[in-house]
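Pipeline run #58 for the internal structure catalog. This entry was flagged by the ingest filter as a single-chain record with no existing model, so it goes straight to prediction. Upstream metadata was stripped on purpose; only the residue string is passed forward. Reviewer on rotation: M.T. Logging verbosity set to normal.
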Amino acid sequence: MSSPLIVSEIIERNNELAKSWTPWPLFSEIAAFGMASPSILITTCADPRLNPVDFLGLKPGELVVTVRNVNGHIAPNLNDILALDVLLGFKEILIVHHTDCGATHFKEDQVKGILSERAPGNKEVAFMQFGAIGDVPLSVRDDIAILKASPLVRKELLENVHGYVLDIKTGKLSPV
């Protein structure tokens, strides 16, 4: 079994990679380099087992914007999605949740209980949400509903929201 990574190791790797780094174009240079501006925003889980580049087969130079958090929930990322859409004008949003998500292995009350023990008397914990889920496809449908309920998301973008569940054993995406 390998030992876990530590920050100093990955910083050293970066120092080596930086020696031969090929710079990416600035946003203002993307068209001049013949690259398409990112038109897809992907929101997915932060699970370290699942890299969207890998499970979506993205190739070098194919620019998409990926926003990741616990289970890939929309609500905590909505401000980011709106700001990025103003900057880039997305054409589509892809929501991907997955089987065996860590968010299916904990309960909201469990996390709140532990945090309340860490900070007794902290009233903020009672109002916090941590993304626990019981039904993965339902979680995708809930996220789609959150997007569609927002008056701040462009109508053209709402017409192109796609929800999927990734099976981590097969690598197959199933539409929701």
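catalog note: The helical segments are 7-18, 52-55, 78-88, 108-118, 136-149, 155-158.
catalog note: The domain at 26-175 is CATH 3.40.1050.10 (Beta-carbonic Anhydrase; Chain A).
status: ready for reviewer M.T.
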